[in-house]
Amino acid sequence: MKKSVYTFFLIVLFSSALNAQTIITGTVVDSLNRPIPYATIYLAKTTFGITRDSDGTFLLKIPKNGYYHLVVSCLGYHTIEGDIYVTGQTIKKDFKLRQHYFTINEVTIHANEKLRNEDYYRFEKLFLGETKNVLFCKILN
User: Fold this and answer.
1) What percent of the chain has pLDDT over 90?
2) Which residues of 10-114 form beta strands (DSSP E)?
């Protein structure tokens, strides 16, 4: 019995050693080859992902072999997506993201004094409460 348990653990240990870790390394730059700070590189539908360093390099470790959907994104840039098959080796991959320009419409904010007073009363009632202790509380700012 003891011998079969040891054999089982050796088989598990040996099989996990065969399933080697894959490392994807590289850089994320813009169209002028400048590093893009804090770009995100991740595998969709998994918990594997990283945020790129400020110097432009990244290193993503994937512990299990197989097919994955790789996503590289950063706010203000077009996202790059693609399928990748990892088999336990180190992969060097550089990504060049294109800027994504967009504009928003003008926003105008108008104050309504009547609603302001009603909202303040409602805020005071919810924030301070309705017990007799409210008489000893004061909102300073």
Assistant:
1) 23
2) 22-29, 40-43, 49-51, 57-62, 66-73, 80-86, 90-92, 95-96
The whole-angstrom separation of Cα 93 and Cα 51 is 15
pLDDT in tens, 18-76: 556 888 899 999 999 999 888 999 999 888 888 877 777 888 898 888 899 999 999 89
DSSP annotation of 98 reads P
* Residue whose C-alpha is closest to residue 93's, from 9, 43, 26, 20: 26
CA Rg value for the chain:
28
Query: Long-range contacts made by residues 74-81, C-beta under 8 angstroms, separation at least 24?
Result: 74/28, 74/36, 74/38, 74/39, 74/40, 76/100, 77/30, 77/36, 77/39, 81/44
